[in-house]
Design brief:
The complex is a heterodimer of chains A (577) and B (163). Chain A has 577 residues and is of the alpha/beta class. Helices cover 34% and strands 14% of the residues of chain A. Classes of the chains: A alpha/beta (577), B alpha+beta (163). The A-B interface holds A 162, 167-175, 182-185, 192, 577 and B 38, 41-42, 45-46, 50-57, 60-61.
């Protein structure tokens, strides 16, 4: 152990701990900006670029950054001397002198770490009126917006994109005052291998990286009397939305969410979970068919649009192995504009489908040409954060709302659909149904707890009707890359793999409420709420959902049949890097 | 395949390890091509298995690397402290006007390119410029035209001292 003294408090820390770690342990707060400790991926953004955490050490002339200074035995540190406070204020003022300071109209207003820091340090004036860097905004994509003029060069996005996700879109370009975080050749982000997972947005401390705002279009279409607007909500939204109304992480707010959407003026409030059950019926059917035909293995789940784009760019030679199933919200759109349109006796072109998603890549996915027929299946996608903002805009007191039920049909779902929102959930749902089908309709068990957890790569072997099946679950694209390299190298003997691009799965999606320092505990609580909902339901198998049975008997015919294939399956495009 | 690209591939194939070899490879490419255009950067990224964003980041960080072709005569004006206080800015400005190009630019006939660099270690001769590596010391703005003319009429060999 290393013994150091901070603000006259003696403290023993593990070898290798930083001064910042030690201060935290002693209950002393040192302001930071660039620092980000991604506990769940064991990755730390420790570039020491912002110098906000400068502290004073006795016997040392210069101040030093607490985040990247290793604690050494006998160190005596003072974190809030006039000199340290002054240095911090000067640094933050210098940041502000090269910042647009349009906080009142900024997407991150109220959720900005730079704004919070300026408030914490009591900055009331910016004494430096130097040159301001000019960089164009990048609005090329349908998912995220880059505003480099608001960037503080903390490089969290670089760490996230290059190290955690191994996508490699961002780099520090130019030098000195001209430094900017940009893409290769300053290309628009749309023309890069970006997967639109949105994790860069979720770690950005300022408004430099934000989501594309689709709330105005959604308000407009709600107001349009010519349109019949159906909204669907993804499983991970309901266990995170409450955080934006001061509730504890992991509070399940399904009933209030439905009530809010009804008050916002949607004509019908339905559930992506219904379509998750539908996905499982198709996916389990596809998996059993592959078992009968001897492959191709491994089959990969295909619900996550960011990982689909990742494999198209990075492993184009593996495009024969993902399941051909569309993602649940796309299946929902396809069914809503055919089967449901007929039931409601409303022409499909009058129906507008809005998806509320924990995800930014869904905004991009909805515009994929292969997922459209003569019309879009999903017209607009808003994130959990955008939905919360619309609730605020509509003056709805979310916390006081009664719990209400989804409309019918396409509103009912099994517990297997709820767990779609977390890493390990899709594969468990698929295995439940496959196990039941391979066992004359009676699953040997419901809870496959061996598939649960937050670790980046998990493996399990299960036995279904005497057949040993090797399963893998991965979350975070860097972990997916590890698995795909094994497959490419021929060293994999997996049968089924679930991939989710975001750390923790959809509960940690790029459209979810910002959570401080990417605390894995928040993800754990959100995921736990999904498993609790699953357990509380009597219906826990996707194929037993009565509305799904009705859909097949009245409309689709057989799982994997001709009609199901036309409406519910897709194909992939080789893209390269 | 382009013979320069072949040479670059040969260089990359001869590397002991591809890890950490980006800057060496870029130096080689800069010498081969005279500059490092986008397709060469992409080629290097692919060959070394690093994102092209990273290659671009490194290329734009070091002033030695250039993303645009250079002229036959590469003029570099030192803007280091010693040269700057002795009037390098005026010399640079005169070159810009004489050649009709900006810093980092190249004339349409591809004869001249202009760069500003930091200290070349000849502060005693400040302000200093170099043309294809040949050093000219104590340059005054009124010398600019004659240096350009010298290139046009006699040509300039590389290296050594100009005057």
């Amino acid at each position: 152990m290393i013994n150091i003294k901070i603000n006259n408090i003696e403290i023993a820390v593990e070898e290798g701990a930083t001064v910042l770690d030690a201060a935290k342990q002693a209950g002393i707060h040192i302001p930071t900006l660039c620092h980000l400790d991604l506990h769940n991926t064991k990755m730390v953004n420790q570039v020491g670029s912002c110098r906000v955490c400068m502290v004073e050490q006795e016997g040392r002339r210069n101040l030093m950054p607490a985040c990247s200074t290793t604690a050494v035995d006998g160190m005596v540190i003072h974190t809030h001397t006039p000199r340290a406070i002054n240095a911090r204020r000067t640094i933050v003022e210098l940041f502000l002198s090269n910042h647009p300071k349009d906080c009142l109209v900024c997407e991150r207003n109220g959720h900005c770490e730079l704004q919070n820091l300026a408030a914490e340090l009591g900055i009331r004036d910016v004494h430096y009126s130097g040159r301001r860097a000019k960089h164009p905004k990048d609005t090329s994509s349908l998912a995220l917006v880059r505003s480099p003029e608001k960037c503080v060069l903390c490089r969290r996005c670089e760490t996230m994109c290059n190290k955690v996700q191994t996508v490699g879109v961002y780099s520090t370009v130019n030098r000195g005052f001209d430094t900017v975080i940009s893409t290769a050749f300053n290309n628009p982000i749309l023309d890069t291998c970006c997967t639109f997972c949105g994790q860069c947005v979720s770690v950005c401390p300022t408004g430099a990286l934000t989501q594309v705002d689709n709330t105005h279009e959604v308000w407009d279409v709600i107001q349009n009397p010519e349109k019949f607007v159906i909204v669907q909500t993804a499983p991970a939204v309901r266990v995170a939305l409450g955080e934006l109304f001061d509730m504890e992480p992991g509070t399940s707010v399904t009933g209030k969410m439905v009530a809010a959407l009804k008050r916002m003026g949607f004509d019908m409030v339905l559930d992506t979970n219904f379509a998750a059950d539908l996905t499982i019926v198709e996916e389990a059917h596809e998996f059993i068919a592959r078992l009968k035909n001897g492959g191709p293995f491994p089959m990969l789940t295909s619900c996550c649009p960011a990982w689909v784009k990742f494999i198209e760019h990075q492993f184009p030679e593996l495009l024969n192995i993902p399941s051909t199933c569309k993602s649940p919200h796309e299946m929902f759109g396809a069914i809503a504009k055919t089967y449901l349109a007929d039931k409601l006796n409303i022409p499909a072109e009058k129906i507008v489908v809005v998806s509320v998603m924990p995800c930014l890549a869904k905004k991009y996915e909805a515009a994929r040409p292969e997922l459209k027929s003569e019309f879009n299946h999903v017209d607009y996608v808003i994130s959990t954060r955008e939905m919360a903002r619309m609730v605020h805009e509509a003056g709805i007191q979310f916390n006081l709302l009664p719990d209400e039920e989804f409309d019918s049909i396409m509103g009912e779902s099994s517990g297997a659909a709820d767990i779609f929102g977390t890493t390990g959930g899709v594969i468990e749902a698929a295995v439940r149904t496959a196990a039941a089908w391979l066992n004359d309709g009676k699953p040997p068990k419901i809870d496959f707890t061996e598939l649960r957890g937050l670790e980046g790569i998990r493996e399990a072997t299960i036995t279904l009707s005497g057949q040993k099946l090797n399963l893998a679950i991965t979350n975070g694209l860097g972990n997916a890359r590890t698995i795909f390299e094994r497959i490419r190298g021929g060293e994999s003997n997996y049968h089924l793999i679930e991939v989710m691009a975001c750390p923790g799965g959809c509960v940690g999606g790029g459209g979810q409420p910002y959570y401080l320092q990417h605390d894995a505990e928040v993800l754990r609580k959100r995921a736990a709420a999904l498993y609790i909902t699953d357990e509380s339901k009597s219906l826990r198998l996707s194929h037993e959902n009565p509305q799904i049975k009705q859909l097949y008997s009245e409309f689709l015919g057989e799982p994997g049949g001709k009609k199901a294939h036309k409406l519910l399956h897709t194909k992939y495009t080789k893209r390269g890097v | 395949m382009d013979s320069k690209l072949q040479k670059l591939n040969k260089f990359i194939d001869g590397l002991d390890t591809k890890e950490g070899a980006l800057i060496t490879t870029l130096h080689h490419a800069q010498e081969l091509f005279g500059y490092i255009p986008e397709d060469v950067q992409n080629h290097i990224a692919h060959a070394l298995n690093v994102p092209s964003s990273k290659v671009y980041g490194v290329v734009t960080f070091y002033s030695f690397f250039s993303t645009k072709p250079k002229g036959k005569y590469k003029i570099s004006v030192c803007m280091g402290t010693a040269c700057f206080v002795r009037g390098a800015a005026e010399v640079l400005e005169t070159f810009k006007q004489e050649l009709g190009i900006d810093v980092g630019g190249v004339t349409e006939d591809m004869q001249f390119s202009l760069d500003s660099i930091r200290c070349m270690g000849a502060c005693g001769l400040a302000p200093v410029i170099s043309v294809n590596g040949k050093v000219f010391g104590r340059v005054k703005p009124e010398d600019v035209r004659s240096i350009v003319q010298k290139c046009k009429t006699e040509g300039i060999s590389s290296g050594g001292q100009g005057w």
